[in-house]
User: What shape does this take?
Amino acid sequence: MGIAIKMPALSPTMEEGTLAKWLVKEGDEVKSGDILAEIETDKATMEFEAVDEGKIGKIMVAEGTEGVKVGTVIAEMAGEGGEAAAPKAEESAPPAAPQAAPDAPRKAESGTAKLAAEVKATVQDPAIPEGTEFVKTTVREALRDAMAEEMRKDERVFVMGEEVAEYQGAYKVTQGLLDEFGPRRVIDTPITEYGFAGVGTGAAMGGLRPVIEFMTFNFAMQAIDHIINSAAKTNYMSGGQMRCPIVFRGPNGAASRVGAQHSQNYGPWYASVPGLIVIAPYDAADAKGLMKAAIRSEDPVVFLENELVYGRSFDVPKLDDYVLPIGKARIMKLGKDVTLVSYSIGVGVALEAAETLAGEGIDAEVIDLRTLRPLDTDTVLESLKKTNRIVVVEEGWPTCSIASEIAAVVMEKGFDDLDAPVLRVTNEDVPLPYAANLEKAALIDAARVVEAAKKVCYK
Amino acid sequence: MAKPTTPRASSAKAQAAAPAAGADHNRPRPETPTDYEASKEELLEFYRQMVLIRRFEEKAGQLYGLGLIGGFCHLYIGQEAVAVGIQSALKPGKDSVITGYRDHGHMLAYGIDPKVIMAELTGREAGISRGKGGSMHMFSVEHKFYGGHGIVGAQVSLGAGLGFAHKYNDDGGVCVAYFGDGAANQGQVYEAFNMAELWKLPIIFVIENNQYAMGTSVNRASSEDQLYRRGESFRIPGLQVNGMDVLAVRGATEEALKWVQGGNGPILLEMKTYRYRGHSMSDPAKYRSREEVQSMRDNSDPIEGVKKYLIEAGVSEDEIKVIDQDIRKTVSEAADFAETSPEPDMAELYTDVLVEQY
Assistant: This one.
């Protein structure tokens, strides 16, 4: 009996090739690793090595033959003295019988299946009991409180980043954490974004719950490989076996007069990546409730804060454990004439615009998306049914933006509810300039939102 | 131009990095390792594992040729002594391991079932990643094998993170992060070195120097081509080891473990090794001569090396043949399993993107 030597596939795309040259002849003894032939693929000339030991029997395809299909038998080889059955691929080619029971492919248990509960329909913000005290809290403090509460609850949670410990945070978001939790759990890193994003991701794979602070998300571009390739794709690539529960957080978007390299909204970038959760809250209560949810999530989370709102104060319910659902938008203001959809700092702009519009007889509904991935399109579409008009307000570039995404979703799923085209109010399509007047001109403001809202209301 | 590709064949199989002039000479250093003194049973096990890797990889190459394995497929043939020597010194379930895309050998050496590895290569439901990872993306959390990473160098920072977790949990485990001579030029490797030493993380960095980063030889890509010195400016000591000799590898690993477990922080092992096959299956390997490869096969083959030790230890050719046949059977069964297992169910397309539902 002989072993069939078949035309090999020698590149991911090869379907056929030229058998350029035989380097053995009939009757030659070959051993594993010997070159049998040279084969021209679609990319290069490759040497084709013997896998098994034996004697070359008949050569079936002559050298110089073009267009030899992958899998064609090109020669036959006599096996190794016929003793130990050398593995022969073709022996198993026609699967004679279904696999015997012990060999049956194991039905791996999906990691997702274990945790997945049918919760989507019931996800709502937790009810706040009547009589709950509300405390004026800055977004900065709310984020810190969320981290501290989760660190008290779960020993696996730690905070790592540049200046998070002794300096108390470049933007003071981690203030006091070192004092309470010590240097084991609040860790200053060198300036080494790619490295510490990788360390955090590896620690998450190893079972910890890292909260990785980027001083700003502009610097996370040096680390985006780990966020996307290492963190976001792991659960899928491992068939649900290896999780990566990590939070990457820090300020995102334009700050004030810091120029183009320090002023960019990465919401749309991360929101385009399957495997990531992307959260971008506006007020302090949402910042707290969603940060707690992010830390508890089994999935990697990109948590986009905004430097300009860190210092703003909002009412936060005084509850022991205020956790909000990820992936659920919030209606900030009810209205019936036009829907203003926004997130992060844009929500403040939209609310300001809504106030102006109210004075002009237009009742705007304001939606804070809060989570950018997964996007709560249901809430947007429900609102559209009522108002029939949508303006998306986004502090970020217009091209391939969250606004573009909302416009696409609304067209696909809410076309019949539209009485006007969806309009996008976004930053200008330029790198952010430094000069005060130019910077102002490049960024969204309430006046532009008012103008767009009037336009879709045909007023 | 050409550096000697043959590992130093002196009796001292490992070389410790000498402290650079002006460096702190009083700094403690690991001892120069000696070859591991393996029992006959251990030698037999080394042999068995190395032959398993070789035959498995040959089979994978064959299945690739038949179109049953797609995409990229990087074979470990020639480097077997590295994974087998190191893995044999680790405690499964306690120590963690991470590597790059040339990962089949490490998994086999860590005792992961060849069937589920091969089935992953053929993209089947029974594959270790349910067919969704492929050759470069395989993991076994159960074995503390953390991949299988396709981005060159990423595993080094991730490995530092695994080391961080060992230290954070104070579980006594050590991480071994393997990477190649090519990855040794990635910036993040040095970011990881810096933090690992700064925080005294329990991690062994292993450079598998197989002499070629794809088609670029070490001395065409590395200003310091003695890669065991690459940790020096971070105060990470380095040892250069004959990666073609499983006993030298194991001996150096023992020394490295002693160093790391002694709370001294990381250590760097440069394993001088060689891959016989192309970088991936689609590599025509025109950057080196046939003679160079043949000379390594003839003079430094790690499996032939162990075979010699076995015969010296009184193991008969017949006993060895029985192992060979047994391995061929195992690999053949793995291939059959991988070929006949069904592809993933279409519903699998949408599973495991996220763990939770939102």
Summary: Strands of chain B lie at 14-16, 96-99, 145-148, 175-180, 203-209, 212-213, 216-217, 238-242, 267-272. The first strand of chain B starts at residue 14 and ends at 16. The radius of gyration of chain B is 20 Å. DSSP finds eleven helices and nine strands in chain B.
